[in-house]
Amino acid sequence: MFGLTRAKKTATALAATAAAAATALIGVSPTAVAAPQPIVGGSTTTTTSYPFMMQITDSSQNQFCGGTLVSATKVVTAAHCMVGETTSSVRVVGGRTYRNGTNGTVSRVSKIWIHPSYTDATNGDDVAVLTLSTSMPYTTAPYVSSSQTGVYAAGTTARILGWGTTSAGGSSSNQLRTATVPIVSNSSCASSYGSDFIASDMVCAGYTSGGVDTCQGDSGGPLLVGGVLAGITSWGEGCAAAGYPGVYTRLTTFSSLVTAQVNS
Questions:
Q1: Is 126 part of the annotated catalytic residue set?
Q2: CATH number belonging to domain 43-263
């Protein structure tokens, strides 16, 4: 375990679920997690450009994680986002570019599926699927099949999205942000994270020099390769720190489980 492991769930949400979810990803003490953290080193964008990008909020519509719409009533997110949550405590908001907006479509959640083996993000299995009570009228994102492992070739450009903070220890972004990062080889990621990196369950993306990354508040959002959902924002050491790329759920490993939930 590392000194400032970042869960990408916002600090407010972390504090609310800390007792129920004292995991490595949510990670360290609330004082160490400090402020919520949006995409570091990115640029602003809109949900018109990325209509499948969902805000996951509390019942008062305060955004704390992201998610990806993969069918009209199914959203893929991170398991650690859902620890300690219930169907009554969560909302999903589509078509809302700004965290403080009032537009878009708000849905209650009728079912939360968390990978049954999930314990914390550094142990892998960091995937969850939400079933919505209201269909979302937005374009969905395709996601990888179990055989599409080639999307993780080192150097491949991936896109990240979120409302998290723009600097470590900063404040959350009001507007959706995006950035591109290269996929990192398994060997390089293992050099950074040691035994906490599980190649079967995780993939790393980021620059050796740092500077561009997801951070708290971006949890559960997509890692897109060629417009296809290939990963889920999961964890990492600090935010945009040199030598510590972001860690994402390797979705090919869990694709069949996700499909089972999407079709249920």
A1: yes
A2: 2.40.10.10
